[in-house]
From TrEMBL:
InterPro entries: AB_hydrolase_fold, FrsA-like. Keywords: Hydrolase. The keyword Repeat does not apply. It comes from Streptomyces prunicolor. SUPFAM superfamilies: alpha/beta-Hydrolases. It comes from the Bacteria. It holds the Pfam family FrsA-like. GO terms for molecular function: hydrolase activity. This is Alpha/beta hydrolase. Coiled coil: none annotated.
Amino acid sequence: MFTFPVEPDDLLDERTRQFVALGIPRPVVDRARARITDMWGTGAGSWVPVWAAEAERAHASGDPLLASLCWGAARFPCLATDDRRAAQEHQLAAYLEAAPRFPVRFQRAVLNVPEPVPVHFFQRRRRGRGRSARPGVIVLCGGVDTWKMDLHRLAVATARATGLLVAAVDMPGTGESTVPLAPDADRILVGLVSQLRRAHGQPVGFYGISFGAHWAAKLALAGHVDAAVDLGGPTGLTDEPVDLLNLPYGMPGIVGNALHVDEMPDQSTIADLLAGFSLREQGLLDKAGAESSPLLVINGADDVYVPRGDIVGLAGRPETTVWVIKDAGHCAPERSSQVNLALWGWLAARLAPGRPLPRLVEIAARQPLRPFLGEGSAGQYA
């Protein structure tokens, strides 16, 4: 693990919207930003101490969930320092303290697949009789810097909106994962999906965000899941390679830490590392056919991280739908409410088989998104 050059003010320019969307009130973010002067140090104006103070303030006021989110901001963007690793431990402790008040049923488990994978389960509270059937399962996975506890709001909303059992996990190389990010790290996720399918006896899908969406596409093309959503995932399908070392906001260092390397890779090393992730080079596009699973691919048309070809290049594959969102960036946060409503309908229709209602819900849920679909959108109901 290593630190790397990044200006905290620049990082907050880019991430303030995200922190607020995850559940940290804007005044808290603004207060922290006004005090932060250094990214990696330990002084009073350094990133971790400032966010730690906000976490402790939230905890003292009786809000352990907000404390957990602030500890999550403290450990951001990666576990490159001792105080960030400690912040993640505080985040988990505060999160579990907050869990009894969650508006859904919650359970934490560590599944061996065979590597240990901590999983957070969320399920809608069921009312009345005749609704005891086991729901389908959706694995929720974030990217290189936004992890399962950070995605609490999305996990709860997905469980409540779809009725599915949400299993939130950290992507390999991040969070509580014990293995580095690597082209074959999908073996962990394949093992997890298989174990969930055996345990629950229901269809299992995968909802991946940012780099986590890379695995959504891979698992769907290989037929390991019953359905998958790729929201902003790099796939290596385009002839335009991702110039990782020139990506903004510290992304080269963030990815390098997920790869578990000890220093910033040089250009040739990083090119070799990234080439291994290409789904085209792995032959998955050639193999994808009858065994492929339904795949929904979504991203903003103006993503600065992932080439558009990585998204639209999947159009035309069996059972693949592509939504390109106009005037939106990486993972289309500008239209998150419309995107999530539409993809929840899409997931419910595929992971709750034998029920006519989810298909109708899918059609209705997609309507608010239609005006924002841009060039490159393709497939059923695009």
